[in-house]
Amino acid sequence: MNIEKYLEKAIKITLVLLVILLPLYFDKSLVGIYDISKATVLWIGAVFILGCWLSLLSIGKGFPPKTIFTLSLFVWAIVNILATIFSESPIISIFGFYKRYNGLLTHLSYTIIALSLITFGDREFLKKIIKIAIAVGTISAIYGIMQYSGTDYFFPERPGGGRVISFMGNPIFSSCYLIMALFLALGFCFYSEGLWVWIYGSAFSITYISFFMMQTRGTFIGFAVAYLVFIIGFLLLFLYRRKEAKIKVKRFYIGLIIIALITISSNLSSESTLGRFAKEFLFSKSKVKNEEIETNLPENKVEIKGSAKVRLCIWKDIARNLSKKPLLGTGPDTMAITYSKYRSLETTRTVGAYATAESSHNEFLDIVAQKGILGALTYLWILIAFLYLSIKVISSEKGEGWWIVGIILSWLSYIFQAQTAFGVHSTESLFWVLTGGIGILYKKQAKRERPKRLVSNQKILLAGILLITLISLILIIAPYRADIAYRKAFDIKDKLPFPEVILAYERVIKIWPYDVQYLQELNSLYLTASQQEGDTKKWLLAARDIAQKLLVVNPNSDIAYTVIATSYYLEDREKNMNEVIENFKKAAEKNPYSVDVHYNFAQMYQREGKNSEAISEYEKCLLADLVCDRALKMLLPLY
User: Fold this and answer.
1) Which of 150, 155, 355, 527 lies most in the core, judged by the most C-beta atoms within 10 Å?
2) For 143-182, what is each residue's pLDDT tens digit?
3) 8 A C-beta contact, residue 303 and residue 297
4) Following CA atoms 112, 47, 104, 410 in sequence, which dihedral angle do they give, to the nearest 10 degrees?
5) Which of 207-211, 456-460, 470-474 is predicted with the least confidence, judged by mean pLDDT?
6) Measured distance CA(102)–CA(625) in Å, rounded
7) Element (H, E) at 600
């Protein structure tokens, strides 16, 4: 039996399945319908690929080519591992924050996809992968158009119009995938002949129409800049290799006409993509009512408001606080648990005192904040290496590389739009497939060595690898199972007796005890039970125990410290006052501008007759939220 052949085939089939399933698959039985569903598919596929790959390595096969590009990918994996080890929450950094799942496991999965594609793929396999991605993009675009028209077979209760989400649960993520698929279709439209030109041209047009139904500005920037690169490149080709350009010039002009017609017809309202731009970036000096635009502006001054201003504030905070953990950052996917500790007062007032930030909406700044300077430099290394190899590959194609141009433009569109957004499993996986794709095209120029076998007893080693792979597959589906249980608990919350609801949430924690969201909800239920269900001490001890577990997962949790302080106070305020004050202070340290923390702290002081301390805490509420009604109501009688 040729085990090498079957293992390589299994890896290629898994890569194809990932390209199909990651954009299209979701599960309505989950709370994270589009999040943990796709993350689990990614993890399962990557672990399976790794198991097959390790099996090949055990018999001396499957070694990746030795190039500076593959080295950059290995270094990227190592930096992610180091950032996780030194993370402010290694547990969260392994799997990622709830409904994001962008931790170490996810980034290692992307690296495995890129490296396995470089190692086991060839040009024809890459073409098949790209064609599949175009088909998936077209299907997603058609589903988006159906949603916009009010036809949704999966969610019939959704009305038509608005910003459609397709299979990815968010207009930003869906539109990002569409522009990437759009450029892949453009590349094959220029590369193909005969009927296929019309097929890929139709895919391009349908995808662009659907893209505008998602009304996203950042992805439009990604598309516009990448398409501008294409125009400039074509004009340069016309200047220096006129013969090649003339063959495709008709398609070039038709493409421009299609772009112009769809862009104009899709942006005639204030809620369109370009209309939404006008709401946040405007040259004006007149007073405007009920909009996110500064009033009485000087002539010719651009004022940025709304979400654009929010993101600028967050970016400033990241830049100011980089010095605190410069080398490896706070850890993969930890912004949600660390940002509240170092956000500025300006950001608090701009974003809102109760708002949180799980991402800076800038992928590079996310890397800087969460993986430090080492992560940023390694990422730049990969980007520069990709661009260098792209130029070398294109310059050697001699008129046959139009489909490769599509890969490069698709990759660039992701990079450009990611400066105002962030990647998710559907879009980032395609980005890393394209990244690995250039490695395939360059592989023919790199020497590839076949080392001797690593071990003599291959059967034992292969059995061990198989066992470890199976155990890993079982472990990584735990968050998926927990979210199914969480959905069931969530659905019965207001329907069944309180003790049964608590039991349902306890089952969630039993399946997966490492999720901040689940632990916080159970904390809240225990505190409520202490006031409603009798046996107060039992419920307060349970709340304190879960809060301690929450601190293991998230050492920066102001909620956990507040729960501990509250439980001590309700249990025996006179005996536990030192613990109460100590934990409230810790909560305020973890989230200095939290209105809830300072308000609860003030309430405690006021009940104890410590009015000066209560006034100080109420004033801190108003520092973060200038119109905090509950703080004003309590504060005024104390003056």
Assistant:
1) 527
2) 999 999 999 989 988 888 888 999 998 999 999 999 999 9
3) yes
4) 40
5) 456-460
6) 31
7) helix 595-607
Lowest mean per-residue pLDDT among 9-13, 155-159, 357-361, 551-555: 357-361
The region of weakest confidence among 98-112, 320-334, 597-611 is 320-334
Residue 363, both tokens? 């992928």
Measured CA distances, 177 to 120, 203, 223, 303 (Å) = 25, 14, 11, 30
Helix, strand, coil: what percent of the chain each, to 5? 70, 0, 25
Distance CA 563, CA 584 (A): 9
Distance of alpha carbon 543 from alpha carbon 533, whole angstroms:
14
Strand stretches in 204-248, DSSP E: none
Label residue 291 by pLDDT band (50, 70, 90).
very low
Q: Taking Cα atoms as reference points, which of 340, 335, 414 lies closest to residue 175? A: 414
Residue 1 tokens read as 């039996």
CA-CA-CA-CA dihedral for 123, 129, 130, 131, to nearest 10: 110
Q: Which residues contact 49 (CB under 8 A, 6 or more apart)?
A: 11, 14, 15, 112, 113, 116
Using alpha carbons, select from 99, 551, 627, 172 the residue that is nearest to residue 356: 99
pLDDT at 282 (0 to 100):
52
Can you give the pTM of this predicted structure? Answer: 0.91
Query: Alpha-carbon distance 561 to 575, whole Å?
Result: 18
In this prediction, residue 304 carries a pLDDT of 55
Can you spell out the DSSP letters for 29-88? TSSSTTTHHHHHHHHHHHHHHHHHHHHHHHTT--PPP--HHHHHHHHHHHHHHHHHHTSS
pLDDT for 570-603, tens place per residue?
A: 988 889 999 999 999 999 999 999 999 999 999 9
- Counting every residue written for the chain, the total comes to 639
Q: Is the pLDDT of residue 451 over 70?
A: no
- Bridge partners, 302 (sequence order): 283
SS (H, E, C) 508-571: HHHHCCCCHHHHHHHHHHHHHHHHHCCCHHHHHHHHHHHHHHHHHHCCCCHHHHHHHHHHHHHH
Cα–Cα distance for residue pair 334/91, rounded to 1 Å? 10
List of long-range contacts for 462-471, beta carbons under 8 Å, 24+ apart: 462/3, 462/55, 462/58, 462/59, 465/51, 465/54, 465/55, 465/58, 466/51, 466/55, 468/51, 469/47, 469/48, 469/50, 469/51, 469/54
Say if residue 443's pLDDT is above 90.
Answer: no
Show the 3-state SS of 380-448: HHHHHHHHHHHHHHHHCCCCCCHHHHHHHHHHHHHHHHCCCCCCCHHHHHHHHHHHHHHHHHHHCCCCC
